[in-house]
Write a structure and sequence with these properties.
The complex is a heterodimer of chains A (609) and B (293). Chain A folds into four domains: 191 residues, Pyruvate-ferredoxin Oxidoreductase, domain 3 (3-Layer(aba) Sandwich), CATH 3.40.920.10; 182 residues, Rossmann fold, CATH 3.40.50.970; 69 residues, no CATH class; 143 residues, Rossmann fold (3-Layer(aba) Sandwich), CATH 3.40.50. Chain A has 21 helices and 22 strands. In chain A, the strands form four sheets. In chain A, strands 8, 9, 10, 11, 12, 13, 14 and 20 form an eight-stranded mixed β-sheet that branches. A six-stranded mixed β-sheet of chain A has the order 2-3-1-4-5-6, sandwiched between helices. The C terminus of chain A is likely disordered. Chain B starts with 34 loop residues before the first helix and ends with a helix. Chain B has 293 residues and is an alpha/beta fold. Chain B is 32% helix and 17% strand. Chain B has ten helices and ten strands. Classes of the chains: A alpha/beta (609), B alpha/beta (293). Chains A and B meet through helix 1, strand 7, helix 7, strand 8 and helix 9 of A and strand 2, helix 2, helix 9 and helix 10 of B. Strand 16 of chain A pairs parallel with strand 2 of chain B.
Chain lengths: 609, 293
């Protein structure tokens, strides 16, 4: 964990407005100054009203997670003080509205009162409290005021009058701190040498994914509004027509995927994006795409369920639905990116795998990495390689058979318009020509052909680097995870390494089919394997146990928030104790037994096999 | 191998083929005497007369007896899932506006499981033809009442008679603002062929309900023959009120074009919008630049 990071949380009532904007603008000012930022937020499901918070962690080097404790709390109201004060580290700062809130009289916290109402009144700008606060923060963090001005200009530049008011508000907050609170800033973060010249983007996972889709050649998108995936549809509604593509807001999620399959049949690279409830509706068509061998990318930005659940909260609970959701065996691929940046590169892999193997690919993002805004290095467009779909050549003179059996299982495809390439994309079991046929021969041939493609796709894990392998590979303790938990895990591992506890980390990005050789080799080297995930049942842990006959320790969290670094770290410590040579104490042994008993596949079954 | 970012746009070169040339060779699975045979014959004749090249035609269907249609025609086909033919067709049309897209299905596929898509296909007004073969029964699942079955019908799933009132598909389509609405009958092949041709030629969404009896589970040949009549000459198909009046008649099932109007199709409108906002040399690099810190 970089020791020189600072974490600020802004809290208030969303009815007052601007909490998220305040946090975002401040994060942009820090990013503009050359610092790295990592944001997180909670939003109530209500449109107006309800408590919101925005948190930003700032550092000169890459930030891995949201941060466990606060260096500063900015509380717009008394409720925010009451809710979040306990999270502020000893010696941390509380910035509060001294016109509307009382700081605690005890505790090791430094209170800075800002008379926000009075200050807003003094410049005759009632709605200026947010920007006044930003001005104060700029001073408290010793950020360059010119940079702040540029960001404010970008944000409010359209209306001259409003811009001038906001710039005045910024100055007012800045000056108030300088004159009344502290002439020298309590916090000073200096960007790395030359950091300002590096190309850095400030964006969310959904934006990164959408940009990646366009880079991947996606030219058709159909979707249906659903939190937290709607941003993807909105992004593509603006950008797709500009690059010659099409975005349709469908009447429901089933129609969205149906349109995607139609467009793919027509020859376009096509995608839909939804969240868990939408993915549930799409399952029949995912099976259809597997059966008709149509490429399609289906994004699931996972949110806490079941049912409507907690739409603005994170989960990793859709893994099993993604893998096992269709009726009967419908070979397909499931991918999961690990970060905001990774969304860009992995969605390109999703398209390439879908096109190359003519299968539906489910892409599992999650609420945490989809909405959080972060600094990432500009995307390396030279890394973008497009894998074409295998097309039938009408000039070949060969009679076309859409589902012709081949060694790879992939059959050349025709596109409407190709003379002699006429066929029916057939959801019934069929023969090589695509005519309905349930004969044992065709049933067997096609079930194997469809499965073969996906087995082959599994071998791309090395060529496409569909995994992250970090930490110390000689370690006895391994962490085998997936998705956005990698940030907190890596911070925890760095802490553990500093304590002399070695940990190896593997994050496969292809979750179905599970990359056999890679996982087998990783788990064979470990004495204990921790599988952290944000769901109740331990969905990946169970899949690993079932596939590899290996007991794992399932670390779960299902409250709708990401792991804290210290939670993962505590588990590493606990497991490390368990692995210590036995002759210690009986009490320790008892704990050890309890842990292993938690998830033990019946050992006899193995013998029987 | 061709990169498929921009699928090829073929120039519509009129075909010169007989109806038989459009047969795929796959024998239809329908019961002898099924109305769908008549629809198939009229359809083959219509596309032959419209001189549509086989490779320029995409036939999309859902699930049901009539949804087996694509297999029997030598054209591009898509046998989808139950009720989803329309959105699949929409995807094909938006990807490939150069194609003639015809959607096929039965009353269960269209008006029960797929009903949610019809008002939206109508409001989008994409240039797609929808031919619904209506036998007022579920045939493939061997005899259950459908949304267009008359009240009181005795079937396996309604042993004491249905209690639900039937749906009037033409009233629904007209009420939703459809730009082309007609009804035909499989036993009137000549007129049906003309209706199919007019439906395909309509620029926008066209809904053609075809009465197509099921001989096995609900034989309505005599019934349909006794209550069908062509729309009178004084009916003006540009008059939605008049169209509704004839559509609402339950004593007589009128045949012919109830309503038609020229209104911009979604595909054409979207293409115009796209042409307006597309900038040359605009791509990922330019999009990425908007997000630089």
């Amino acid at each position: 964990m970089p020791s020189n990071t600072l974490t600020v949380r802004v809290g208030g009532d969303s009815a007052a407005g601007g909490i998220i904007t305040t946090g975002e603008v401040f994060a942009r000012i820090a990013a503009f100054a050359g610092l790295e930022v990592y944001t997180t937020r909670t939003i109530p499901a209500e449109i107006k009203g309800g408590h919101v918070m925005f948190q930003v962690r700032i550092a000169p080097t890459e930030v891995w997670s949201q941060g466990d404790e606060l260096d500063m709390l900015v509380a717009f109201d008394q409720q925010s003080i009451e809710r979040y004060l306990a999270l502020v580290r000893p010696g941390g700062i509380l910035v509060y509205n001294s016109n509307d809130g009382n700081p605690p009289t005890t505790g090791d916290i430094v209170p800075y009162g800002l008379p926000l109402n009075d200050l807003a009144k003094s410049i005759n700008f009632q709605r200026g409290r947010n920007i006044i606060t930003i001005g104060a923060l700029v001073k408290l963090f010793d950020l360059p005021c010119e940079g702040a001005t540029v960001v404010i200009e970008r944000q409010f530049g359209r209306k001259k009058e409003l811009l001038e008011q906001n710039l005045l508000a910024l100055r007012t907050g800045y000056d108030y701190v300088e004159q009344n609170i502290s002439a020298t800033a309590p916090y000073q973060l200096k960007p790395r040498q030359g950091a300002q010249k590096e190309e850095r983007l400030v964006l969310s996972g959904n934006q990164s994914l959408s940009m990646g889709a366009i880079a991947a050649g996606c030219r058709f998108f159909a979707g249906y509004p659903i939190t937290p995936a709607s941003d993807i549809m909105e992004f593509l509604a603006a950008e797709l027509p500009r690059v010659g593509g099409t975005m349709i807001q469908a009447e429901d999620e089933i129609a969205a995927l149906a349109m995607v399959l139609g467009a793919s049949y027509g020859g376009l690279r096509a995608m839909t994006a939804t969240s868990g409830p939408g993915l549930a509706l799409m399952q029949e068509l995912i099976g259809h795409a597997a059966m008709t061998e149509l490429p399609a990318v289906i994004v699931d930005v996972q949110r806490a369920g079941p049912s409507t659940g907690m739409p603005t909260k994170v989960t990793q609970g859709d893994l099993r639905m993604s893998v096992f959701g269709t009726n009967d065996d419908a070979p397909h691929i499931v991918l999961a990116p690990v970060s905001v940046e990774d969304n860009f590169y992995q969605i390109i892999h999703a398209f390439n795998l879908a096109e190359k193997y003519q299968v539906p690919v489910i892409f599992l993002s999650d609420q945490d990495m989809s909405v959080r805004m972060q600094t990432v290095p500009a995307f390396d467009l030279t890394r973008v390689k497009l894998e074409p779909r295998l097309l039938w050549d009408p000039e070949s003179g060969e009679k076309f058979a859409r589902y012709k059996d081949t060694p790879s299982g992939v059959s050349p495809m025709s596109l409407p318009g190709m003379k002699g390439g006429q066929y029916v994309a057939e959801g019934l079991e069929h023969n090589a020509e695509g005519e309905p046929n349930y004969d044992l021969h065709w049933r067997t041939t096609n079930m194997e052909k469809r499965a073969r493609k996906v087995r082959l796709a599994q071998q791309e894990i090395e060529s496409l680097q569909l995994y992250e392998r970090l930490g110390d590979d000689r370690a006895d303790i391994g962490i085998l995870g997936w998705g956005s938990t990698i940030g907190q895990v890596m911070e925890a591992v760095e802490r553990a390494h500093a304590d002399g506890i070695k940990v190896a980390v593997l994050y496969p990005k292809m979750l179905y089919p599970l990359p056999r050789a890679l996982i087998e080799e990783f788990i064979a080297k470990r004495k204990a394997i921790i599988v952290p995930e944000l769901n109740y049942a331990g969905q990946l842990a169970r899949m690993i146990q079932a596939e590899f006959w290996r007991e794992v320790i399932s670390l779960r969290k299902f409250h709708g928030t990401p792991f804290k670094t210290r939670e993962v770290y505590a588990e590493i410590k606990r497991v490390n104790e368990l692995l210590k040579p036995a002759p210690k104490r009986a009490a320790k042994k008892a704990t050890a037994k309890k842990v292993t008993a938690r998830k033990k596949p019946a050992p006899k079954r193995k013998a029987r096999r | 191998m061709v990169m498929t970012l921009e699928p090829p746009k073929y120039i519509f070169d009129p075909a010169n083929l007989t109806p038989n040339d459009y047969k795929s060779g796959v024998p239809p699975v329908w019961c002898p005497g099924c109305g769908d045979y008549g629809v198939l014959a009229s359809f083959l004749k219509a596309i032959s007369e419209l001189r549509i090249p086989r490779e320029q035609l995409a036939i999309v269907s859902g699930i049901g007896c009539s949804s087996r249609f694509p297999a029997f025609v030598e054209a591009y086909g898509f046998h989808g899932t139950h009720g989803r033919a329309l959105p699949i067709a929409a995807g094909i049309k938006m990807a490939r506006p150069d194609l003639i897209v015809v959607t096929m299905g039965g009353d269960g596929d269209a008006f029960s499981i797929g009903m949610g898509h019809i008002p939206h296909a109508i409001r989008r007004n994409m240039d797609i033809t929808y031919i619904v073969m209506d036998n007022e029964i579920y045939g493939l699942t061997k005899g259950q009442p459908s949304p267009t079955s008359p009240i009181g019908i005795l079937q396996k799933a309604s042993p004491y008679g249905t209690v639900e009132r039937p749906l009037n598909p033409l009233q629904l389509a007209l009420g939703c603002g459809a730009t082309w609405v007609a009804r035909g009958f499989s036993s009137k092949p000549k007129e049906l062929g003309e209706l199919i041709k007019a439906a395909i030629q309509h620029k926008g969404f066209s809904l053609l309900q075809v009465l197509s009896p099921c001989v096995t589970f609900y034989d309505t040949y005599d019934h349909f023959k006794s209550i069908t009549k062509f729309l009178p000459a004084e009916h003006n198909p540009r008059d939605r009120t008049s169209a509704l009046k004839y559509a609402l008649d339950e004593q007589t099932l009128y045949m012919g074009v109830f309503y038609q109007e020229e209104s911009e199709a979604f595909d054409a409108g979207y293409a115009a919008m796209r042409a307006r906002v597309t900038t040359p040399n605009y791509g990922v690099r330019e999009i990425m630049n908007k997000y630089m810190r």
